[in-house]
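Batch manifest line 250
LIGAND: sodium ion
JOB: complex structure
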Amino acid sequence: RLIANDLWQAVDRKELQLHYQVQKAVHSGETIGYEVLLRWHHPSRGTIPPSEFIPIAEECGAILPIGEWVLREACREAATWGNEQKIAVNLSPVQLANADVADLVHRVLLETGLSPRRLELEITESTIIGDKERALATLRRIKAFGVTIAIDDFGTGYSSLETLRAFPFDKIKLDRSFMSEVEASPEAKAIIRAILALGHTLRVPVLAEGVETRSQLDILLDEGCDEAQGYFLGRPVPVGHIRPAMEKTA
Ligand code: G
Ligand code: G
Ligand code: MN
Ligand code: NA
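JOB STATUS: finished
ARTIFACT:
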């Protein structure tokens, strides 16, 4: 309870902060964009990771104002970059179930002046599993603006293939559990290869998450993976750490 009460006030008290983690093209090494990851600096408990507070925020509804703040803040930031790099924002199932989320995205794009094609929304399969028809209708509206949709944590859900068939995603994000096992497990490597083949048959680029070593990146290069994200390429960092890179590409 205490945490939920604090969460409702976290935005107003300016306790939330965004971190940015780079996403790169595997072959060229070029920066495609950044995933936005939320951090909560609680006044007495210190920094609380999203894995702990997002589920609580979803349960109590505070994810709606928090998610709105994240979207606006990320779009406002990316609009200052003067390049074509994308910003990838995680969208909670609770936000997607809320009928207004397409209007919110539209409003924030107008307000910030960010080009819609520079915004990507990351959704997990569980997001679609809820009220499927409604979620699909909302996602189609958002896609019609030119915003792209990535399916996050792919390979961990219950109905990956059905989800892919039912909805035209713009990117597949391969769950990081596959990367952590790729060197030790021929099965993990075979699954990565199969998902890459699936993505490429559907003409959808695949991003591998959780790339922590040079040799993992080399495997991805060999296998023809499109994009990668992970500690080896860059940790999630506050925006001050990436702004200098923006000046060089601007
Ligand atoms: O940053 P990482 O370390 O701990 O994030 C853990 C989880 O929290 C990830 O699954 C990520 O998708 C989720 N997450 C991070 N930031 C946000 C956010 O702004 N909104 C939502 N809904 N989830 C987020
Ligand atoms: O579920 P989602 O992909 O949205 O969340 C990204 C999460 O993965 C964040 O918590 C982020 O801190 C974490 N992460 C990013 N890169 C790596 C990595 O190379 N290794 C591990 N173990 N976690 C990572
Ligand atoms: Mn994500
Ligand atoms: Na993920």
